Amino acid sequence: MDKAPDAFRTISEVAEELDIPQHVLRFWETRFAQIKPMKRSGGRRYYRPDDVDLLKGIRRLLYGEGYTIRGVQRILKEHGIKSVQGLADQTSAVTFGAVEEAIGLSLQEPDEGEIPTVAADDEDFETEEKEIDYRFADTDDDGILLPFARAKPGPSDADRERLERVLQDLIACKQLLDNALKDG
């Protein structure tokens, strides 16, 4: 039996609807203060429809658009909850105008507990700028990057064959280098 659109949802129902594990929803509660499900005795969570829309928007930004947690936090801070809830509809475009630059900067900032990368000749120990190229990334039917989609049990047979060929090529290259160093 389907619930009414305005009915509260349990964590298992929301996790199933968003196709993510329950522990991820609990983790997001620790990273996004805006996620506030109602809790009953025993700690059982109940999500309002607005909570579910917010979670859908966060999921889309993290998995579909490639933003970091810090980037999504900035979007929430700069544009508010409603803008992220509006992303729950898969057809709406992701445009945040003026904060795109700030979000780009957030990709350079390390998250809590993360160690920044440092250029060898950099005396100020600033983080290196790293650009992620998504042009060749595969997405599923929902536009979510495949590395973030449900994991498959293991590599396909074709992937195994390719990996085996690459490994053999690398071993042959190593032998050539070893021989060249001995002769040189």
TrEMBL record:
InterPro entries listed in its UniProt record: DNA-bd_dom_put_sf, MerR-type_HTH_dom, MerR_fam
Source taxon at top rank: Bacteria
PANTHER family: BLL5018 PROTEIN, REDOX-CYCLING DRUG-SENSING TRANSCRIPTIONAL ACTIVATOR SOXR
Keywords annotated in UniProt: DNA-binding
SUPFAM superfamilies: Putative DNA-binding domain
Gene3D superfamilies tied to this protein: 1.10.1660.10
Gene Ontology molecular function, alphabetical: DNA binding; DNA-binding transcription factor activity
Organism, scientific name: Bradyrhizobium retamae
SMART domains xref list: HTH_MERR
Record carries keyword DNA-binding: yes
Alphabetized CDD domains for the sequence: HTH_MlrA-like_sg2
Pfam families: MerR_1
Name of the protein in its database record: MerR family transcriptional regulator
Keyword Metal-binding: no
Positions of the HTH merR-type domain: 10-78
